[in-house]
Design a protein that fits this description.
This protein has helices at 2-10, 12-31, and strands at residues 43-47, 54-61, 72-79, 89-93, 98-102, 109-114, 124-130, 144-151. By secondary structure, it is α+β, with helices and mostly antiparallel strands. It has a four-stranded antiparallel β-sheet, with no helix packed on it. A four-stranded antiparallel β-sheet has the order 2-3-6-5, with no helix packed on it.
Length: 161
């Protein structure tokens, strides 16, 4: 115990310097913690289907770095095989026109997005994809149905999401 006190007495300036650096490090990371104002404007709460060959992701698109009042969301589908996007029929209830396109060059990845407007906040949507065929013309799987709703983060139902 005496050796510890002797070490502290001899190295007090070095220990003080290390302590100050540690406090500065902690303060820096606490300062960069996002505040409530920096939280996203919308949260997507999907009820994803049990699909056979598709992985479904919902991704937000921000145009020119601006936060949109009614954000555009792409609903992305990743299939285990390449598909013919021209065979896919997408419909949304309540009715809004949507488009289906490939994501990049991979023909196993598609996205569904609104053509003219965007998804509205606090509205429950049901998206149905049908006619999903592989490039060889065979049906890849049955219809996919997704239900989702955009909610504000302050909504109690979005906590923990």
């Amino acid at each position: 115990m005496a050796k510890i006190f002797e070490f502290i007495r001899k190295k007090k300036f070095m220990l003080l310097f290390i302590g100050i650096l540690a406090l500065a490090f902690v303060a820096f990371f606490l300062q960069n913690k996002p505040t409530q104002d920096e939280s996203p404007v919308f949260v997507v709460k999907p009820e994803l289907p049990d699909t056979q060959n598709a992985l479904v992701l919902l991704s937000s698109t921000v145009i020119n770095g601006d936060v949109l009042d009614s954000p555009i969301f792409d609903i992305d589908f990743y299939f285990s095989k390449e598909i013919d996007v021209s065979s896919v029929k997408a419909s949304v209830v309540p009715s809004i026109p949507v488009a289906v396109d490939y994501i990049g060059e991979k023909k196993s990845r598609i996205k569904v997005y609104p053509k003219e407007s965007s998804w509205k906040n606090d509205v429950s949507y049901m998206l149905t994809l049908s006619g999903i065929k592989g490039l060889d013309g065979s049906f890849l799987q049955e219809d996919i149905v997704i239900q989702f709703k955009l909610v504000t983060p302050s909504d109690e139902s979005s906590k923990g999401f």
